[in-house]
Amino acid sequence: MKLPAYPRTKPSGVEWLGDVPEHWEVKRLKTSATCWVSNVDKVPAEDELPVRLCNYTDVYYHDHITPDMELMETTATADEIRRFGLRVGDVVITKDSEEWSDIAVPALVKKTAADLVCGYHLAIIRSRPKVLLGDYLLRAFQSCAVNQQFQVAASGVTRYGLPKASIGDAWIPLPDVAEQRAIAAFLDRETGRVDRLVAKKRELIERLKEKRTALISRTVTRGLPPAAARAAGLPANPPLKPSALDWLGDIPAHWEVRKFSRCAFFQEGPGLRNWQFTQDGIRVICVTNITEAGISFANYEKFISEEEYESTYRHFTVAKGDLLLSSSGNSWGKVATFDADEVAILNTSTIRVNENSQRTVIRSLIGWLLTSEGTREQLGLFMTGSCQPNFGPSHLARVWICVPPLPEQAAIAAYLDSETAKLDALVAKVEAAIERLQEYRTALITAAVTGKIDVRGARATCLAAE
C-alpha cells in the first residue's frame, strides 16, 4: 500500500525533523502535557493500601496497559496512589535502563482501576486532551525521530537515566486533534497487522525449536532413522531392550546405559572475584558468554592479569574445541564450543566437558547429549538454589546417558550436525523476516508521526486491502 505525501510542507525549524505538513505545529512536549517521575517501590508495608503496580517490564513489553494484565500486587500510601495512579490516556515511559536504546519506551494506559499505580523507574506523561491525544503520543514516542531525542539526553555509563526536564523539552510534531486521531487509528490498524504476522512467525520459530529438541532427544536415545542408518551402513531397525530406567524406556539392544561420570571429564571454573578482574590480559569465560549461537563476548568481557593466570589459574585454561556448559541462572544448560585461538580460562558457573581418558564417548556426541531433553530433565531434578538455580560437575556426573558403539556415535553426531543446521537455517530465516517486519513497523510509525505520509484517507484503502 503506497500512501501519498502531503501536498504542502514547511521547514519544521528542527534539524532532525526536516519539513512537516504546512498546517502542523512543532512544539515542546511540556506545552501540551505534564510529566512526573514515580518513586513507588515494590516493597509492601503493613500500614499501606493494596495496589497493583505497573512495573518496568509491563511497559517495556507492551504497547498498552490494562488492569487485567498480570500486574504485581503490593502496597502504596494514599498519597502515592493519588500522585501516581494511572488514568486512561496516560503514556508511561521507561526512564532508566542498562541500555541507552531502551530509554523512553512507551505504553499507553487503555483502561485503568482505582488501585492501578505506576512503579519505580518509570515516568507518567499526561497530555491535555484538547491539544494532544495519548494514542498519538504513544506513537510519537515510538517513532525514531522523537525517541532519539531521549536517547541522546540520557546520561550514565553502566546505567542510563533520563532527566525529567529532557522529557518536557523534547520537540514533537503536532497536528490538530482530529488528525492525531486519524494517525493513531491508522497506526493501530497497520501495526496490529504487523504484530499478528510477527506473532505467527514467532510461533513457527517455537515449533521449529521444539522439532529440533525432539530430533536430538529421539536420536541420542533411539538411534538414527532407518534411511539415515542405511546410508551410514548401520542396521535400519535394530532390536530394542529395556533400559531399566522408567523415563528412558527401550533402547537399541547393542547400546549401553551409563552414568555420565564414566564417559566424560568435567571441570568447573574457580569462582573469580570482581577485584581480580583487569582491563585486559587473559580472557575469562563467564556464564553469560555461553549462548545458543556460540561463545560471545559482544556484551560482556572479563580479564585477569597474566601474572595471576600463571601463578594460580593456568589449570583452568580452555583449549580450542572444548565444550563449555552454562550451569547457573536462567541460561543454564546452554552448550557452545570454544573455537578461538586465544588463551582463556573458565569462571564459576561454566563447566568444561570433554572425553575422559577411556574415550568411550566422542566429543561431538557429548555436545548433543548435553543438549538433549533427557539430560536437561535430570539436571533439573539435581539443581540447587531457588532464586539462582545451579548445578555442578557432581550433579552432571549422576546423569544417565545412552552409549552406542563408537562408529555409530560418529554417524549420529554427523546426522545431528546436518539436520539441526537445516532447522537452524530456517529459524534464522524467520528471525530475519521478523526483524524486517519490525523495521517496517518503526519506519511506518515514524513516517506517519512526522508527516512524511498522509494517512487521512487511508481508512477505506486499508479496509479494502484486508
Descriptive keywords:
466 residues, alpha+beta, Adenine-n6-DNA-methyltransferase TaqI, Chain A, domain 2, five-stranded mixed β-sheet, four-stranded antiparallel β-sheet, 29 strands
Descriptive notes:
It is elongated and about 80 Å long. The protein starts with 8 loop residues before the first strand and ends with a helix. The chain has 13 helices and 29 strands. The chain has a domain at 25-174: Adenine-n6-DNA-methyltransferase TaqI, Chain A, domain 2 (Alpha-Beta Complex). It is α+β, with helices and mostly antiparallel strands. It has a five-stranded mixed sheet. It has a four-stranded antiparallel sheet with strand order 19-28-25-26. The chain has a four-stranded mixed sheet with strand order 23-20-27-24. Helix 3 crosses helix 12 and helix 6 (177-222) crosses helix 9.
